[in-house]
Structure formats: C-alpha cells, structure tokens
Amino acid sequence: MMRFAAIIDLKGNISEAIMKEGKTSLKSQKEEEHFCKQVAMRRKIRQQFDKSLGPVNYVHIERQKITQIVIYPKRKTIYVTMEPNMDIKRKLEIVESIKKKTTKL
Question: What is the pTM of this model?
C-alpha cells in the first residue's frame, strides 16, 4: 500500500503531494522539505554517470519503517513511500505504473 506521493521540481521544491487517508507522515514538514532538496541534489549527482552507466531507471530504498521509491521523468522527480512489508513484485508493478503515467513530466 502506498503511503505518500510527491512531485518534486528539479530544485527540490514539492509541486504536489498527497498522503494516503488515515496515514501520518513519519517525518516533520521541515524534514520532508529537506529530504526533497536532497533528492534533487542526488539526481544531479547520478546524472553525472548517465553517459557511462546509462540513466537511472528508479531508486529503491528499503528502510525498517518504510520503502522509498524515486523516479526521474525528464523535468520532475516522483517520490513515493510504501509499506515495507509489501510484496516486491507489487512494488515493481507500482514503479512501472508510475513511470508510464509520468513520462511527460
């Protein structure tokens, strides 16, 4: 089950965000904003290796309390959190669905 989704601009500002009803953020608003700035910085760092390694398909981070997914359409970044106990196949299905829906961003 997805918990949170955000569209982040290339500077790390949150353009749009939504939290699943009944869920609460594991981070404060200030922490969330800082994290999104860091996501934008990491994207720039990863792009330095695009020529030699190819572009990033997505970033998948498994934490004890949450799964974090980051996807890089052309001009935006999609950040999604999910429950860590979700089946990996389901997580990958969600990643592919998001990639298809956000190709024009």
Answer: 0.89
